[in-house]
Amino acid sequence: MNARFARRRTDWISLFFTGTTGLATVLIVAILALILGSILVNGAPHISWQLLSGDSAKDMFDVTKAGLLPLIIGTSERVLLMTVAVMPVGVITAIYLTEYAPSTSLVTRIIRSAVNNLAGVPSIVFGLFGLGFFIGFVGRELDSVLHGASADPVWGRPALLWSSLTLAVMTLPVVIVATEESLRAIPPGLREASLALGATKLETVFRIVLPNALPGIMTGGILAIGRAAGEVAPILFTGATYYMSGTPKALTDPFMDLAYHTFVLSTQSPNIDMTRPLLFATVVILLALTFALNIVAVLIRGRMRKRLRALG
Amino acid sequence: MPNSLPAHVVPAATSSRRTAGWMGIRRGHRARPGEWLAEHAIFAVALSTILLIFLIFVFVGREALPLVFGKVSTAAVRTFIPPADLDRLPPETIREYLGLSDSDFKAKDHDTLKLLMEVRAESAQEASTDRDAGINTVSWRYLLRPHQWTGYDKPSYIWQPVSGIPKYNLVPLVIGSLKATLVAMLFAVPISLAAAIYVSQLAGGRVREWTKPIIEMLAGIPSVVLGSFALLVFAPAFKSLFGLDSLLNATVAGLCLGLTCIPVIFSIAEDALTSVPRSYTQAALALGASRWQAAWQVVLPAGLPGVFAAVVLGFGRALGETMIVLIASGMASNVSWSFLDSVRTLTATIAAELGETPFGGAHYRMLFLLGALLFTVTFFLNLTADLILHRLKRRLEGGR
């Protein structure tokens, strides 16, 4: 017994491992800082008003002449459309899972499992799905119904709409998980009070629970946008295009995209040394878009937690 | 007196034991059919997630199925039907000979069919004299086993879909994927598990509050940005540091791939370790253990299934990641055990080649087959992790 205690006084092993694991944590944070720092330092000086607002995609590999406005518009459009598609489905599924689903039923378990599984599907598989389902099946069927079999495809080709829907399928779990979390955070007393005053369950959910959970739901939407804005694999075959003049005029038009452009610049450039400044600048803009969204989401979530703590 | 109660109150009262409180409440259904309708509509929408998984299976698999069942052939046809026989033979024979679907066949007029037959006859006459030309390269034997192609001095695994004789051996791609994933896991697993242990067990509340969101911020960096970072910053540094000949290889791609796994593994492992009841640690500390001993010998074993699930999900993430390997892996398909050779992964192959393949051809279907393979593997990985985490949650909640 005494010997044990004596050994404990110089517990180098514990100290060593505490230090090592702490170091690992610091290392991850340092890597993150290094990535962001190196991109920012190399890219920020090349960002100019002309780069942000110009639309001369002709000189797409030269930072002094290129303009990224059509790309920024294309990315915004696909992300907005995606939000419109994903939010209702995601929020309603989350409402079912938190407010209605019997917690022990098999169906609930399968739905939860499907949500978790959807979150882990590789993004390139979503691209294949978008091509096979939205373009190859839905689009072609629409064409054959609306225009007859032999006409040029209108719906059955890569387009803004199909890219957005593919991304909506991909970001569905993000919205569901975030919404669910915010619905669960609403104190049960609020629901009980509403029911006690004679409201039905549906009224309680839509008039009491949902408005209070709104910041959390917004967080979900913002996270989904942040995730989708930077994704390339799902839009490779479903709508993004290398070059076109102007911006898409209809849902069935293809579009130019900031994230896809980053990929084009890093793999197809005829002269990587000339392209490098532009690539860095594009990455900075893309990062600013997605990262700003993520930080906003984290801030909203933090504020909501504080407010609900006061409420409950 | 249960019988005197209105009918719709009874189920709520009796089911309250099974589904606690709020879940069991069914108010006003009789008075408001709209309420009943809305609830069922909500349920129907919730089912859409299951439907989506099902649709992904169907529509990715649908394009690949003809390959699986050997309905597609790349073998050059040497026999042909003279175009003049078009009117003599029954339409069904012609349709099969040209490999057209029923509706396609009906949509084409006589001249078009004749033209198709002439093209077919011409290509059959010109069919290369290469002894490999007659091989159906998409049959399973050539997908999985090595073959000594013309011009090669030994049987080899070749992925070369765009050439006179398209070669679709899957082995180099699978090895490429596994190599990049292995590097990623070797890098990401130790570092993220160490960080998870530190943040959840050893660090103070302040540190915990700050580090977790910061590390999860890594997940917010788009993979195409990480790929560009690998290409522009990391690969040149790595090359000059070790004096390598080539810029892009499995190690560079794998290490950057690891960066996408770190937030996944860290986040899930940290959650699992945090969900181990506080009383476990307190009991260990009360018995004289140090914080590290409590974490390593008590909390970690209790949360081990969650840690395992975290690693499984991280593996799935690395296997399915596309843009980083597309940009930073070098894209050369070869079978070797060196981690400094460039690799071509399953995901990057799909991304790089699908844009240029004709719709419905053998190459197109082959890429969908790769996708179906990828989806099946990640589906089971996700399912396994989901089951493990669910079971762990139930056990820890029961044991509190």
Description:
The complex is a heterodimer of chains A (312) and B (400). With 312 residues, chain A is mainly α. Chain A has two domains: 1-46; 50-311, MetI-like (MetI-like fold), CATH 1.10.3720. Chain A is 73% helix and 0% strand. Chain A contains eleven helices and no strands. In chain A, α7 crosses α9, α9 packs antiparallel against α11 (272-311) and α10 packs antiparallel against α11 (272-311). The longest helix of chain A has 40 residues, at 272-311. Chain B folds into three domains: 2-46; 77-127, no CATH class; 171-398, MetI-like (MetI-like fold, Orthogonal Bundle), CATH 1.10.3720.10. Chain B has a two-stranded antiparallel sheet with strand order 1-2. In chain B, α9 runs antiparallel to α11 (250-274). Chain B starts with 8 loop residues before the first helix and ends with a helix. Residues 1-21 of chain B have low confidence and may be disordered. At the A-B interface, α1, α2, α4, α5 and α6 of A face α2, α3, α8, α9 and α10 of B.
Give the topology.
The complex is a heterodimer of chains A (312) and B (400).
Chain A lengths: L1 H8 L2 H32 L5 H5 L15 H32 L5 H14 L3 H24 L13 H25 L3 H9 L4 H29 L28 H11 L3 H40 L1
Helix pairs in contact in A: 2-11, 4-7, 4-9, 5-7, 6-7, 7-9, 8-9, 9-11, 10-11
Chain B lengths: L8 H7 L17 H14 L1 H21 L22 H8 L3 H6 L2 H17 L13 H5 L14 E2 L6 E2 L2 H32 L2 H13 L5 H20 L7 H25 L3 H9 L4 H30 L2 H6 L17 H8 L8 H37 L2
Antiparallel strand pairs in B: 1-2
In short:
Chain A is mostly helical.
Number of DSSP helical runs of chain B: 16
Total DSSP E strands of chain A: 0
Q: Quote the CATH topology of the largest domain in chain B.
A: MetI-like fold
- Tally of alpha and pi helices of chain A: 11
Q: Roughly how many Å apart are the termini of chain A?
A: 49 Å
Low-confidence stretches of chain A: none
Instruction: Name the helix and strand elements of chain B from N-terminus to C-terminus, one letter apiece.
Output: HHHHHHHEEHHHHHHHHH
The neighbouring-strand order within the major sheet of chain B is: 1-2
Can you say what the CATH homologous superfamily of the largest domain in chain A is?
MetI-like
Spatial shape of chain A: globular
